[in-house]
Amino acid sequence: MLYVKDLHKSYQVGKVRYQVLNGIDFHVAQGEFVAVMGPSGSGKTTLLNCISCYIPFDRGSITVGGTKLAGQNEETLAEIRNTKLGFVFQDFMLLDGLTIRENILIPRIVQGEVKRDAEELADKLTDLFGIGHILDKYPAEVSGGEKQRAAVARSLINNPMVILADEPTGNLDSKSSRAVIETFMEAKSKMDATIFMVTHDSFAASFCDRVILLKDGIVYRQLEKTGDQGVFQDELLDVIKEMSQ
Ligand SMILES: Nc1ncnc2c1ncn2[C@@H]1O[C@H](COP(=O)(O)OP(=O)(O)OP(=O)(O)O)[C@@H](O)[C@H]1O
Ligand SMILES: [Mg+2]
Description:
Elements: E1 2-13, E2 16-28, E3 33-37, H1 44-51, E4 59-64, E5 67-68, H2 74-83, E6 85-88, H3 100-109, H4 116-128, H5 144-156, E7 162-166, H6 174-191, E8 195-198, H7 202-205, E9 210-215, E10 218-224, H8 229-243
Parallel strand pairs: 3-8, 3-9, 6-7, 7-8
Antiparallel strand pairs: 1-2, 1-4, 4-5, 9-10
Adenosine-5'-triphosphate binds near residues 13, 18, 43 and 45.
């Protein structure tokens, strides 16, 4: 579904070039829920922005659902963003002047008319995520956790190949975080959604199928969940400790 091969990315600031990604390799399969962790500055957001087609990369390749990202023109990249990718941001990015229902339908609205199938999918998603009762409210009238679950519903409204999420639980308390992670798990089990999530939170990551740990611009380790979520969180914490030494 998502292939990243030998990805290199640097930033030029004045005369200085900062190498951030130094040959990243991994693959995310259809229906997998994968987290990326790593110290601050290790390049997690940079990696996500490369996959999101927001910033160009120097070398290597990214393939989403069979389409290579390098060498595409802006128009094609915009189309990939609209049709193959779904996004969930830390600060929700809901529009204040639209209801929750309208916010969820935005990706369809920007593509033209909202057809009946989109309305039906919106109803299905909001039922699944327990936010059916807030559809006519405005973002200012709902809780942070509800906003984020609406943002997850919006990310699914185009049936994307992959959902990309940068710190989706970063601004939430532990109860709301858990509710958001549960929406991802529902999306995975009921809709076969593929989710790629950057997080600092080992508790959130411990619900994933696999965790990719970045350090110094490369994949330091990949950990697969084989058993219990609590055991997996302990394993993650051990590797994070080892990484910081
Ligand atoms: N536009 C930019 N120009 C120059 N340097 C940048 C730019 N964006 C990020 N960087 C640098 O690249 C490195 C990686 O940044 P990135 O935001 O990818 O880290 P991160 O792993 O997401 O960190 P955090 O956990 O704090 O969100 C950092 O050293 C950062 O200062
Ligand atoms: Mg970041």
